[in-house]
Amino acid sequence: MSLKDVLLPFLAWGKVFKNPVTIKDPFNDRPGSARYRGFHKNDIEACIGCGACEEICQNAAIDMVPVKGIETKDGDSGLRPMVDYGRCCWCALCVDVCSTNSLNLSNEYTWVENDPDKFRYIPGVDKKDWDNNELGWKKPENYDLNEPFRIQMEELKPEKRDSSFIEFVKGYSKEQAEAEADRCIDCGLCTATCPAHMAIPEYIKAIRNDDLEEGLRIMYETNPLPEICGRICTHKCETVCAMGHKGDALSIRWLKRYIADQIPESKYKDILNQGNDISPKSKKIAIIGSGPAGLSAAYYLTNLGYKTKIFEALPEAGGMMRYGIPEYRLPYDQIDKDVKYILSLGVEIEYNIKIGKDISLEELGKEYDAVFAGTGLHLGRSTRIPGAEHENVYFATDLLREISLGNDIHVGNKIVVIGGGNVAMDITRSLVRLQNQKNIKVDVTATSLESEDIMPADREEIDESREEKAIIDPGWGPKEIEIKDGKIKGLRTIKCLSVFDDEGRFNPKFDEKDKKFFEADMVVESIGQGMDLTYISEDIKTMVKFSDRGRIIVNKDFQSSLDWFFVGGDIIEGPDVIHGIANGHKAAKGIDKFLNK
C-alpha cells in the first residue's frame, strides 16, 4: 500500500469546509458535469462515413445510413451514423475511435418523448438543442485507440543504393506487418476507391490473424499481380484511408507486398485451388501485350476456361512494368513470380512478335474468337522546342527500355531531365546510378513546368531523388535546347507562373523576363507518354470509333464498336498498373458475356 493510499481517507475531511452544491429546481435544472457522456453530436461535414463507430459498438447501437444531400465520393462513403438510444450504453468508444474527431458527446442527458422511434436519430442531421453544447465528452488529446503513425519500412541508405539497381526497399518483417495491420479500422473506404475494388480490410485482417494463405486468396479474387502491385501500385487507396485524418495513412501497398513475399510461387496452385478445376471451353482468345491489362485479362479468361494466348513484341513479359520501371523499384524476379503463376494455369505467350508486322490484327480476328489489346504507352512525347531533334536528346521511355534490356546507353556528364512525374524521377535516378557506375561525377537535374507543390511525382520519389544527389528544380518552362558547334550546351527556360487555368485546363502562363539556363550535354524529355496504334490497320480503323483525343472508344465491358475487339489498359485508362489490372478483369467478363451472347 502506498503512502497516498494511507493518507487518502484523511484528505477527504478537507471537503467538510467546502460549500455544498444546491440545485433549487432538480426537475428542470440538472446539468451534467463538464465531461459527462450525454447525447451524441456529429459534424457531418467533417465526418467521412468510415463506419468505425458502427464497427466498434458492442451493442449494435449505431447504423451507417445514407443522408440526403451527402454524396458518395473518394474518401467519403456518403453514410452517416444513426444512434439507437434503446441500445446505447454511453461508453464513448465510438467517440474514441472516430478518425476525424467529428463525433462527440454533449453533456445533455435528459430527453423526453412519447414516440420511442424518435430515440433513433442521426446526430448533426436531426437538429437537437444540444448540437451547440460545447461541454461533454471529447476524445482526450494525444489519445488514440489505434497507433496514428505507420510502421516505417527499412530501406538502403542513399550512399548504398545510388550506384546499384538492386531493390532498396526491404519489406516488412512479420512483427512490423502485424503492427501495421493492427492500425486498420476496417472502414472499407480503400476498397471503394481502389480501381480493382480489392477487399483490402479482409486481406489486412488475414495478416492480423497470421493467415497469409487466406490473404493471398482474397487478393487473387481481384488482382493477379500482387508482387508487382505491392511495389509500384499508385495506392489511391492510401489517399482516402481514414487513419490519414489523424496521422499516417495505412501502408496498404506494403502489406499487400508482405503477403505475396512470404509465399513461394510453387505453393500458389494449392493455396488458390486453381488449374485442375478449370473446365475448358472450345473458344480461344488472343491478347496483344503482356502488361498489367493483358496479364490480368489472360488470368481471368483462363480461369473461365478459355484457351488464351498473349502476343508480346518484346523479349519478356511485363510491358511497361518491366520496360518502363527501374529494377530498383520493381525487381524482374518479382515480375517473373506473378507471370510464372499465370503461365502455369495454361496461358501461352509468344515473344518477339509484333502485331501489324509479323501478323495482322485482321488475322488474329479470324483465327481467334475474340481479341483483347492492352498495348500500353511506350512512346515518348517531345517538347518540340528548338534543338529537341538533336541526337543527344532522348525520350525517358526509350532510355528506360534500353536499360531494362541490358543495353549500354549514352550517359552525359551534365544531364537535364524535362518533366515532373514519376517517369521523370525514374530516369533521373537511373541516370544518377549510371553516372556513379561509370565514375562520372553525379550531375543530373530534373526540371518541370509544375512547382514542387503540384508536381505529379510521388513525394517519396522526389525526396529519394534528392537523397541520391540529383537536383530537382521545378517551376520552369523549356524554351530552347542551345546547340553550339553541333553539341548541346544546355537548356534555356523561363519561369512558369501557373500550369492550369481557373477551369483546370492545361494552359501554362510564363514570366518571359525571369529566365534560367541549365548547363547540359544531354537532355531527356519526360513530359508524358503516347500510344502506338500502328498495329491497327486503316480498314480496322474505319470500324472502330475514336475519341477527339485519339483513344479508342469502348463500352463498360471494354468492347470496341468492332464486337470481337476489346481494348483496355493505359491506352484507355491510365497510365496506372491497378487501372490496367481492373480493365483486364472487366474485359475478361465482357469477353465471356460476348462469347456466350
Q: What is the helix content?
A: 25-40%
SS strand fraction: 15-25%
Biggest sheet statistics: 5 strands, parallel
- What's the CATH topology label of the largest domain? FAD/NAD(P)-binding domain
Concise account of the structure shown:
Helix content is 29%, strand content 16%. The protein has 597 residues and is α/β, with parallel strands linked by helices.
Walk me through this protein's architecture.
This protein is an alpha/beta fold and about 600 residues long. It folds into 4 domains: about 30-130, Alpha-Beta Plaits, CATH 3.30.70; about 160-270, Fumarate Reductase Iron-sulfur Protein, Chain B, domain 2 (Orthogonal Bundle); about 280-375 and about 535-595, FAD/NAD(P)-binding domain (3-Layer(bba) Sandwich), CATH 3.50.50.60; about 380-530, FAD/NAD(P)-binding domain, CATH 3.50.50. About 30% of the residues lie in helices and about 15% in strands. The strands form 6 sheets. Strands 8-7-6-9-20 form a 5-stranded parallel sheet, covered by helices on one side. Strands 11-18-12-13-14 form a 5-stranded parallel sheet. Strands 2-3-5 form a 3-stranded antiparallel sheet. α13 links the parallel β6 (about 285-290) and β7. α5 crosses α7 and α7 runs antiparallel to α8. It is globular.
